[in-house]
Amino acid sequence: MVQVLKDLYRWIPLGLIFVPLNALAHELGHFISYHIFGADNIVLHYASVSADTETLSAAEKAVATIAGPMVSLTILVLAFIISRKRDSPAWMILGAVTMLRGLVNIPYLIGRFKGLSGQPNFDEYNFSTYSGIDPVVPAVISILLVIFAIMYFSFLAFRNNKVLGIVNLWLSVLTGLVFWGIIGKILLP
Description:
Layout: H1 2-37, E1 40-44, E2 49-52, H2 58-85, H3 89-98, H4 105-113, H5 123-131, H6 136-187
Antiparallel strand pairs: 1-2
């Protein structure tokens, strides 16, 4: 029991640190892209970036909208590479959380396959709109990456400490998400 508490005391603070940093890194991908392309009135929020993009070309808008997911993909690749060499709770947390935002694609795909139409507002859909790619393609890729991240990093956590490893991983991710959902709204409304 003492070891269980020691593990939680080690994992939870890492979730409180690395989950918000992951969210910020993703949003900074958009933020920096908009600055590079000269958008006006760029504002970094805790879970989005707003900008006046009327002066940007469709290609510039496409790059700016996919920049956040590309940062997330880079974090996933780094977490995968590093975690293959050594067990690192921080990298397991980053690897597990970085693609979770891709879950927004599931309702879109369900609606699309049911014949519903609409104008959702999430990165993969916006990228598709600006680049002329069918939105199903990046949505499916994103969901496959989510599934990979959940399975791979859960497996690593299990290998590390059986069921308690999985509990540590996902409690730290969940704690970090709740923490960022509260503190992020205060810091970057």
